[in-house]
Design goal:
The protein has 177 residues and is of the alpha+beta class. The protein has one domain (34-171). Helices cover 31% and strands 18% of the residues. A three-stranded antiparallel β-sheet has the order 5-4-6. Strands 1-2 form a two-stranded antiparallel ribbon. Strands 3-7 form a two-stranded antiparallel ribbon. It starts with 8 loop residues before the first strand and ends in a 6-residue tail after the last helix.
């Protein structure tokens, strides 16, 4: 993931043996920084996009920025911490997910009942409709399709801010023996 190429390197003992110390530089993926999201309220920095089935963060990064390695900006703007579950699943993956979660053959069993306004209700009377497990999970999945994409003219500012924060983070490290 290109996101981590900006992170600092640390020496790591690859053997774990005090008698045979050997350090190799590795990427410090545990380093924590937080880009300022207060810009989210400034819609001029973002463009709205609806994710179409099968579009990946890499695809969108290529479409918007011309560089698939900037997919981390797409995920960060989407506030996705788990790319598999915070990003909309493809129809095929959604079918597999629902079958695994509810059991094969139970995908179209009732999940809950709704009234005409979409509120969950008890199945009493005749003014309700049944929502299957698949329909419920599909609705949840569809809520993840709305995306605010950072406009291309602001991408280099975000990359520069990440580099700045990582540099500041490295300078604030205290090494003790």
């Amino acid at each position: 993931m290109a996101y981590f190429k900006y992170f600092n390197q640390i020496g790591y003992d690859i053997h774990g043996d005090r008698n045979r110390l050997q350090y190799e530089d590795i990427t410090n993926i545990l380093q924590r920084v937080r880009l300022r999201l207060d810009n989210v309220k400034y819609h001029a920095l973002f463009a709205e996009h609806t994710i179409i089935d099968g579009q990946t963060p890499e695809y969108l990064a290529h479409e918007f920025y011309g560089d698939t390695e900037l997919h981390w900006i797409i995920l960060y703007a989407h506030q996705a911490t788990n790319p598999y579950y915070d990003w909309p699943l493809t129809y095929h993956d959604l079918k597999k997910f629902v079958a695994k979660k509810y059991g094969v053959g139970n995908e179209y069993e009732p999940n809950h009942y709704e009234d005409s306004d979409g509120y969950w209700v008890d199945p009493i009377g005749d003014d309700f409709s049944t929502v299957s497990h698949f329909a419920h999970e599909e609705a949840v999945n569809d809520t993840k399709r709305q995306l605010m994409v950072v406009r291309p003219e602001h991408v280099q500012d975000i990359v520069a801010e990440l580099k700045n924060l990582l540099e500041y983070s490295r300078a604030s490290l205290v090494v003790r023996k």
